[in-house]
Design goal:
The protein has a 4-stranded mixed sheet. The radius of gyration is 16 Å and the shape is elongated. The chain has 2 helices and 4 strands. A hairpin with a 4-residue loop joins strand 1 and strand 2. The protein starts with a strand and ends in an 8-residue tail after the last helix. The longest helix has 9 residues.
Length: 70
């Protein structure tokens, strides 16, 4: 059994998500296929999951209030 994956991001994709993708949604590299056993330890990216960078981007956008004691 093979699965779509991105080796640089160490992500694996469900068959449903892979059907809608041609490139990795994070690094924009074309998806590769690998045997399921070779992908042990890769994070599963489900269709509709937010990208991992989103919490960091939100935190950077909010910033720290200037009146907050340090």
């Amino acid at each position: 059994m093979t699965r779509a994956c991105c080796h640089s991001c160490q992500l694996r994709f469900t068959p449903a998500a892979a059907a809608a993708l041609t490139t990795c949604p994070i690094c924009d590299v074309p998806l590769d296929t690998a045997r399921a056993a070779a992908l042990m330890g890769y994070r599963l990216q489900l269709e509709g999951d937010p990208l991992p960078e989103l919490p960091a981007v939100i935190a950077a956008a909010l910033g720290v209030p200037s009146d907050r004691p340090r």
